[in-house]
Amino acid sequence: xxxxxxxxxxxxxxxxxxxxxxxxxxxxxxxxxxxxxxxxxxxxxxxxxxxxxxxxxxxxxxxxxxxxxxxxxxxxxxxxxxxxxxxxxxxxxxxxxxxxxxxxxxxxxxxxxxxxxxxxxxxxxxxxxxxxxxxxxxxxxxxxxxxxxxxxxxxxxxxxxxxxxxxxxxxxxxxxxxxxxxxxxxxxxxxxxxxxxxxxxxxxxxxxxxxxxxxxxxxxxxxxxxxxxxxxxxxxxxxxxxxxxxxxxxxxx
Length: 253
What we know:
By secondary structure, the chain is mostly beta strands. The protein has strands at 22-24, 34-40, 48-59, 61-62, 67-68, 75-77, 85-91, 99-107, 114-119, 121-125, 131-139, 146-154, 160-166, 169-171, 177-179, 184-193, 199-209, 212-223, 227-229, 241-243, 248-252.
């Protein structure tokens, strides 16, 4: 069954890692109307009303400024665990580049809103590549100069080596990056495969300020293992040939 957002249930998911949020076309194109969809489900036992979904979009990054879109709602969700209702909003980008999407979902009778989101960046890599640069903007959303601290997470830590560049210079995980209030700078997450085998791994890069989470980047890399063959089992010293089993794609979510 399709994954969905349950608006009245607190979630442990990071606000940047909701893969069920969809956009069409993906990635969005300048001057072309795009549709952002939030799949909603109410498993019951009672009907619920989503009073408002406040939607924002931003350039791909962490701690950057957001563009507010018109809100969605109210929406009534009957108690139906096998039914998904998709709330949609249309938006026309005026600038190029990938985007992050965030939404605050307010439900009637709930004291706290649910915060969901995901980015919309997809990188298609050639099968023989083992290095994936992921450029992003890094900003300080605080009203004063503050230290932004970056840290890694994810799965299969031995499969991918990770490096952070800020303003073109390497920054170690845990090392503070001091930015002025509202300042945004160019940054890059570089991921490198550490072996030629297939990869199905996640890397998360999170930024905190004064111990509080600002936002994060969620990278999933799928790489098939390459099949090594040679003409006659190496007798004629022929060079090995690489046959790719399927396309290689690195997703940023």
